[in-house]
């Protein structure tokens, strides 16, 4: 596929004039076969499936039909350097899908708005319901290759299903797959699925989406292909730092006839005691999984804003509070009801903590986890629980609610905002006029967006029938991008939103708040100058120290910095004393609630020791490094590091030239990691695990890295995980 401008070449320009014509010849899979003619010249083209192709064809058609300036538009024949896949499903002509899509269409006049309202009122009169069958299958393959036919599984139904959604987890457990999201096992399992589909029907391949080892394949009966459109994919990593893809979810959303459908394949946190982490993963996936719409001015679609939501995967909820022998006895008796009553997922759903509104299929099969690899024998290791593997062929249906719009004007105050802590307030907007209207938050003069980057309004635009109302959520979230300027006092939590009514007046919404400064998102040089916890310091003092840290005007006597920030020392010291033998360190995520406690402890100095599990402390350390506005190895050194990545002595020479506090932190962290590697027999850590995790945090690129740069960064950092006599020892004294 074409990734950058270097992947395509401009071959020819054809003007869209009266001598121009374009015909959609036929569809092969999802690729639209198009014939373009100009005088005697003729081109056969394949346009890949997607919203960009639809938009392009509609623009060509608009120009050709004379509704636009014909000679101002051109058609570009682009030759791709790589082959375009021809096994995808075709796109149908755009159709008005449902209420939410109708209400989201932009810029209608008054007459159009009235027509839309009448259509919505009489929707039941011109719609009808049909049933279709979905095969939803999920398989944790544990990094294995396909060894036998999947037909007994995929073709197990008497009647061929209309849709196949086949989910995999742990497709590839190699370090390369984890680091570079690349695996040869993807085509192997894809071929195995294709060969295993029901033999009594023909299927078209629609889409594939994969995040490391989490993969979802979508096939549909050929006769339904014409009615599939709006196919989009997204992924969310919920591993360490909420981003790494060893855990998380992938999803495919599409429109079938007039229904919006979203299918999610997730692999949630493991281990019996981590059900709270699984709950958190589910909520993070629901919040962060967002699909862009054809109209880019419309807000993204979340999972729950679809007519039908199908969720499958390795959810990892366990059977708890039962001894393993008792579980096996209940399985032998086929007493699945008793087992189900001890299922963590059922308990969490009953308490309405997760999957609220979802319906799980009847459990009439024994637990599928855990067997000895390649056998039908239960796990012969000593285990005190057996996991219930979530699996269902049933649909989970959600109703969608129409958007709506504007009323009064209020100031909104967000109190005591903290780093990575979400707050939201709701404004209810009511249309008490006599006609429907549209609303939209619009940018202020000379500003690129309607709001500051720490603020969002959802929905940001929509349609409002007369007498209707809508709740607009104003959400504030300070992350690693926005925290540095708030910590240093360069920015404040202040913004004005302009709510514009089509053919009406504008309303102004004032959003203000106070942000509690944090060590997360503060610079190393500033933190080394802080003698007290950051929230015990006056804001003006923090601002002054931030300015001193970036200038040469500090007094070496009165402004003598600490060797390393005390916050780094506290986290590393905690792990050094408590986690040297901890398995899955820096790989298993912690709990969000524990991170918040650790953050507050570091920012306020309220406790002498850090709260939370080892995994939560290790993730906090990674988040701290990730949030540094200037990484441990400053951006200016990045090109040199890549150039000499294969030469150990030159790499060490570069480190010796770092600013003093940056050099101290680098040496301190590498000494700590070397200590961890001494206990690899217990913690199972090795250089290939630690190097990529820390390399990408300590040596960050000022721009997006490609795979070659990632490998060079890893190679650079690996030199420092091999201890030499000159390496700094970890036993720094505690900062004063």
UniProtKB/TrEMBL annotation:
Keywords: Cytoplasmic vesicle, Endosome. Residues 537-729 form the Rho-GAP domain. GO terms for biological process: phosphatidylinositol dephosphorylation; signal transduction. One of its GO terms (molecular function) is inositol-1,4,5-trisphosphate 5-phosphatase activity. It comes from the Eukaryota. The keyword Transmembrane helix does not apply. SUPFAM superfamilies: DNase I-like (SSF56219), GTPase activation domain, GAP (SSF48350). It is found in: Cytoplasmic vesicle, Phagosome membrane; Early endosome membrane. GO terms for cellular component: cytosol; early endosome membrane; phagocytic vesicle membrane. Pfam families: Exo_endo_phos2 (PF22669), INPP5B_PH (PF16776), OCRL-like_ASH (PF21310), RhoGAP (PF00620). Its main location: membrane. Its EC number is 3.1.3.36. The keyword Transferase does not apply. InterPro entries: Endo/exonu/phosph_ase_sf (IPR036691), Ig-like_fold (IPR013783), INPP5B_PH_dom (IPR031896), IP5 (IPR046985), IPPc (IPR000300), OCRL-1_2_ASH (IPR048869), Rho_GTPase_activation_prot (IPR008936), RhoGAP_dom (IPR000198). CDD domains: RhoGAP_OCRL1. This is phosphoinositide 5-phosphatase. It comes from Cyprinus carpio.
């Amino acid at each position: 596929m074409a990734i950058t401008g270097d992947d395509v070449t401009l071959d020819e320009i054809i003007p869209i004039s009266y001598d121009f014509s374009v015909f959609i010849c036929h569809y092969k899979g999802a690729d639209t076969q198009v014939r373009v003619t100009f005088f005697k010249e003729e081109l056969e083209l394949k346009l890949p499936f997607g919203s960009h192709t639809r938009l392009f064809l509609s623009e060509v058609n608009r120009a050709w039909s004379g509704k636009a300036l014909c000679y101002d538009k051109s058609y570009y024949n682009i030759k791709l350097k790589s082959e375009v896949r021809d096994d995808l499903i075709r796109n149908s002509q755009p159709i008005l899908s449902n209420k939410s899509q109708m209400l989201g269409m932009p810029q209608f006049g008054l007459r159009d708005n009235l027509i839309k309202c009448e259509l919505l009122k009489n929707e039941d009169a011109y719609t009808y319901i049909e049933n279709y069958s979905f095969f939803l299958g999920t398989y944790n393959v544990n990094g294995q290759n396909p060894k036998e036919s999947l037909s007994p599984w995929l073709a197990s139904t008497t009647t061929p299903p209309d849709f196949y959604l086949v989910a995999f987890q742990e497709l590839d457990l190699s370090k390369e797959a984890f680091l570079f999201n690349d695996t040869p096992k993807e085509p192997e399992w894809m071929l195995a699925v294709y060969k295993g589909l029901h033999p009594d029907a023909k299927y078209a391949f629609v889409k594939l989406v994969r995040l490391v080892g989490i993969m979802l394949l979508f096939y549909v009966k050929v006769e339904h292909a014409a009615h599939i459109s709006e196919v989009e994919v997204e992924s969310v990593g919920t591993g360490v730092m909420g981003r790494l893809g060893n855990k998380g979810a992938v999803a495919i959303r599409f429109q079938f006839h007039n229904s919006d459908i979203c299918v999610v394949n997730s692999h949630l946190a493991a281990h019996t005691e981590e059900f709270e982490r699984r709950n958190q993963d589910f909520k993070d996936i629901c919040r962060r999984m967002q699909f862009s719409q054809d109209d880019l001015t419309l807000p993204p679609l979340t999972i729950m804003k679809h007519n039908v939501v199908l969720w499958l995967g390795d959810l990892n909820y366990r059977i708890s509070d039962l001894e393993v022998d008792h579980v096996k006895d209940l399985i032998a008796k086929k007493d699945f009801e008793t087992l189900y009553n001890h299922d963590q997922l059922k308990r969490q759903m009953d308490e309405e903590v997760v999957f609220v509104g979802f319906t799980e299929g009847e459990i009439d099969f024994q637990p599928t986890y855990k067997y000895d690899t390649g056998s039908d024998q239960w796990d012969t290791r000593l285990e005190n629980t057996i996991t219930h593997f979530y699996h269902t062929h049933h649909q989970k249906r959600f109703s969608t609610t129409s958007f709506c719009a504007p009323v009064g004007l209020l100031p909104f105050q967000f109190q005591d905002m903290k780093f990575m802590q979400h707050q939201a307030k709701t404004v209810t907007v009511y249309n008490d006029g006599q006609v429907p209207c549209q609303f939209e938050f619009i940018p202020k003069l000379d500003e690129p967006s309607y709001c500051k980057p720490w603020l969002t309004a959802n929905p940001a635009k929509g349609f409002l029938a007369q007498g209707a109302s809508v709740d607009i959520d104003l959400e504030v979230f300070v992350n690693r991008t926005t925290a540095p300027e708030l910590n240093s006092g360069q920015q404040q939590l202040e913004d004005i939103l302009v709510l514009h009514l089509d053919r009406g007046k504008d309303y102004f919404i004032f959003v203000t708040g106070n942000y509690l400064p944090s060590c997360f998102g503060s610079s190393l040089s500033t933190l080394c100058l802080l003698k007290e916890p950051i929230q015990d310091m006056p804001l003006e003092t923090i601002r002054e120290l931030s300015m001193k840290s970036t200038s040469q005007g500090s007094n070496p006597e009165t402004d003598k910095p600490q060797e390393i920030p005390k916050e780094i020392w506290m986290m590393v010291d905690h792990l050094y004393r408590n986690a040297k033998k901890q398995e899955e360190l820096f790989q298993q995520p912690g709990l969000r609630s524990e991170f918040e406690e650790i953050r507050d402890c570091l920012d306020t100095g309220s406790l002498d020791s850090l709260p939370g599990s080892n995994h939560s402390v290790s993730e906090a350390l990674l988040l701290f490094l990730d949030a540094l506005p200037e990484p441990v190895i400053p951006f200016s050194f990045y090109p040199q590091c890549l150039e000499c990545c294969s030469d150990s002595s030159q790499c060490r020479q570069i480190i010796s030239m770092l600013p003093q506090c940056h050099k101290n932190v680098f040496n301190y962290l590498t000494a700590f990691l070397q200590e961890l590697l001494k206990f690899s027999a217990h913690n199972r850590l090795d250089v290939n695990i630690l190097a990529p995790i820390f390399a990408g945090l300590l040596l960050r690129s000022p721009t997006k890295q490609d795979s070659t740069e990632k490998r060079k960064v890893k190679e650079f950092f690996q030199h420092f995980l091999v201890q030499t006599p000159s390496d700094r020892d970890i036993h720094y004294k505690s900062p004063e």
